[in-house]
Each structure stands twice: as structure tokens, then as C-alpha cells.
Specification:
Elements lengths: L13 E12 L2 E12 L3 E5 L6 H8 L7 E6 L2 E2 L4 H7 E4 L11 H11 L4 H14 L15 H12 L6 E5 L7 H18 L2 E6 L2 H7 L2 E6 L2 E6 L1 H8 L2 E6 L3 H7 L6 E7 L2 E6 L2 H14 L6 E5 L3 H9 L3 H19 L6
Parallel strand pairs: 3-8, 3-9, 6-7, 7-8
Antiparallel strand pairs: 1-2, 1-4, 4-5, 9-10, 11-13, 11-14, 12-13
Helix pairs in contact: 3-4, 3-5, 8-11
The chain binds adenosine-5'-diphosphate (ADP) and magnesium ion.
The site of magnesium ion (MG) has 5 residues, from helix 1.
Length: 344
């Protein structure tokens, strides 16, 4: 389609506009025709299991990968036609660490500043400011190889901000970090958003992270965008309450509950059977009665308000764990077939 971009003016409140973005790797469609907009000042969460296409999407938006089809405007610049302007206007923190271990925190920042032509007159001041912001100022002259995972992540975020981007991309910002460090990072991310007015796009496969940080969440699975809304609206879509029955006889329970009048929906997954109902506490006795009458063993019953986990299950038919297990199995089969490692 010629001049597709020319027909796509951005509204002043928009930071990113993605139109029919697609990426194919040979016969694998990693990102499948996704469209969405990110508003200025928003934290936009991209939630999906490993292999869903999150990093591939970010790489296209950051102009590191060329789309197979579709396009996007980032801060008003086309990712196809104006890559340098896109790059200058964004900060990127990659899923895999890219710091130089043999340099100090300050030197890593300085190198990045030179790369982005941050003038020498302001470079030092900005570096010190940002290191202070992520509470690394006292460690500025330590080699990165002496840093913990959380400190490295903080340094990468500070580095991504040195050239004063309008939009910050964070690819799996807390991957593999312990809960305390993750909490601390969430605080920084929130603070950058509120205090600096930064638009942030983050990817994650952690439900709690997406829920806690995002103003809006796009659920992505197998390269497709399944749904996009605020965490509250997503949870309200499920409505009622969730009863999760852990049972080795899920099949039987599922077929028995097919005709249940008070169930909004029922799904079997992961050794459990999940029912969505209103007034769950009042439905438990009947459920237990049905189970007893039909010799269905129940290991546990849990009632809870719909979480993002339930939203994911509702829209994809699987839990994120099952989806990831499937992706890993596909990957294994792929490796056996091709006899080579594929990038995650
Ligand atoms: N350079 C590549 N070559 C071939 N396949 C790739 C490449 N990069 C990613 N993929 C595949 O594309 C799919 C999406 O990957 P990715 O975007 O990394 O997912 P996520 O970040 O959501 O875990 C996966 O199946 C992955 O194996
Ligand atoms: Mg990824």
C-alpha cells in the first residue's frame, strides 16, 4: 500500500499509533495484524505468555526489526520512514541485559550519552541526576559486574532516559528478580510516569505486574491481540466470583456442570475446574453435594474475585502457565525438527 503513513495523522493526545502491524519469521507469524494506540502519559502494559510476540512488537516499534506488514507512528514519526527520529524520541530497556560489565555505572551512562550526542556540557549533570533518581549515585564508580540484578535493571532504566525520550519501552522489566526488588522497580516505574510525565510501554508475563502498573492492558497471545482495556474493566467483564475446584475428576465435573443454571461459565484447566457464578458462597454446598453424589474427589475449593489470571483464561481458554508450557513444547519440537536453537 503506497503512502500508507501519509494517511495516518496522529491526534495530539496520542504517543503511539500501531496499524495492522505484522511480523513473520519464515512460516511463523510472531505478530499477527495488531492495531492499537497509546495515549501520552499512559503506562501501557503488554501482557502475554513467553513467545506471544511482545518483544518482537517492541523491536518493531523501536525500529530494530522491520515489519512484514503494517506500520506505526511513534511520537509522530513513522517506524518505516523516519527511523532515526523514532530512535531519538524513545528510550529502550531490552529484555536481555545490554550493560558493559567491565565499565562502571557512570561509564555505561556516559557511553550512551555520547552515542546519542548528549552535549558534554549537560551530560555529567544529567547522568548524576538520573543515577540519583534510581538510587545508584553512591555506586556510580563501581563496576557493573559487582551489581545485583535489580541494580542493573535500575541502571538500564536510567540509561534509557539520558537522551530525554518522550516514550520509554521496558521489555520484561522485572524478569527473574525477587519480589522485594520487583516492588522497588515498580515504584520507580510509577514515579517516572507521574513525576516526569513519561509515556511507558512495558511488556510482561506477570499478571501482578500488568495489574499494578498499567493504565491499560493489551493481552497478546500467539501474536494476536485478544483484548485491550483497563485492568478494572477487564476484570469486570468476567463479573461475579470465581470458584476454583481442584480435582482429579475435572472431566466428569465439567460434564455434570454443563447444564448448571446458576453458572455463568465453566472451564477445566491445569488439574482444576473453574466456575464463574454470582454469590459463590451460597453455591458451594450444592457443588459439594453434586461432587459427593457422583464420587468426584475434591482436593480444595477456593473462591475469589476475578483476577487478570481469570481474564486471561476467559479470553484464551488457557491459563498463562499452560500457554507457556505449550510454547516451550512447540519450541522443543521445533528444535528437534530444525536441529538448531531458536531465539526466545
Ligand atoms: N529472530 C527470530 N527468528 C525466528 N523466530 C523468532 C525470532 N524472534 C522471535 N521469534 C519467534 O517469534 C515468537 C515471538 O517471540 P517474542 O516476540 O520474543 O515473544 P515474547 O517476547 O512475547 O516472549 C516466538 O515463537 C519466537 O520463537
Ligand atoms: Mg520477550
Amino acid at each position: 500500500m503506497p503512502n500508507q503513513e501519509n494517511r495516518l495523522p496522529m491526534k495530539s493526545e496520542e504517543a503511539i499509533k500501531v496499524i495492522n502491524l505484522t511480523k513473520k519469521f519464515k512460516d511463523l507469524t510472531a505478530v499477527n495484524n495488531i492495531s492499537f494506540t497509546v495515549k501520552k502519559g499512559e503506562i501501557f502494559g503488554f501482557l502475554g505468555p513467553n513467545g506471544a510476540g511482545k518483544s518482537t512488537t517492541l523491536s518493531m516499534l523501536a525500529t530494530l526489526l522491520e515489519p512484514t506488514q503494517g506500520t506505526a507512528l511513534v511520537n509522530g514519526f513513522s517506524i518505516r520512514k523516519d527511523r532515526d527520529s523514532v530512535r531519538r524520541s524513545i528510550g529502550m530497556v531490552f529484555q536481555d541485559p545490554t550493560l558493559d560489565e567491565e565499565l562502571t555505572a557512570y561509564e555505561n551512562m556516559d557511553f550512551h550519552g555520547r552515542l546519542y550526542n548528549v552535549p558534554a556540557t549537560v551530560r555529567k549533570k544529567k547522568i548524576l541526576e538520573l543515577l540519583k533518581l534510581v538510587e545508584l549515585n553512591e555506586r556510580k564508580d563501581s563496576l557493573v559486574k559487582t551489581f545485583s540484578g535489580g541494580m542493573r535493571r535500575r541502571l538500564e532504566i536510567a540509561r534509557g532516559l539520558l537522551h530525554e525520550p518522550k516514550v520509554l519501552f521496558l521489555d520484561e522489566p522485572t524478569l527473574g528478580l525477587d519480589p522485594q526488588t520487583r516492588n522497588k522497580l515498580w515504584e520507580y516505574i510509577k514515579r517516572l510516569n507521574t513525576e516526569k510525565g513519561l509515556t511507558i510501554i512495558l511488556t510482561t508475563h506477570y499478571m501482578d505486574e500488568a495489574d499494578k502498573l498499567s493504565d491499560r492492558i493489551a493481552i497478546i497471545d500467539n501474536g494476536k491481540m485478544i483484548i485491550l482495556d483497563t485492568p478494572e474493566n477487564l476484570k469486570n467483564m468476567i463479573g461475579g466470583e470465581i470458584i476454583t475446584v481442584e480435582t482429579p475428576n475435572g472431566d466428569k465435573l465439567e460434564s455434570l456442570m454443563k447444564n448448571c443454571k446458576w453458572c455463568k461459565s465453566g472451564k477445566r484447566h491445569d488439574g482444576s475446574f473453574t466456575l464463574t457464578v454470582d454469590h459463590a458462597d451460597k453455591k458451594i454446598p450444592e457443588l459439594v453435594q453434586i461432587a459427593n453424589k457422583n464420587k468426584i474427589k475434591i482436593n480444595s475449593i477456593v473462591i475469589h474475585k476475578p483476577s487478570l489470571e481469570d481474564v486471561f483464561l476467559h479470553f484464551t481458554g488457557k491459563t498463562i502457565r499452560e500457554q507457556e508450557a505449550g510454547a516451550i513444547e512447540n519450541l522443543r519440537q521445533g528444535r528437534r525438527m530444525h536441529g538448531r536453537m531458536r531465539r526466545r
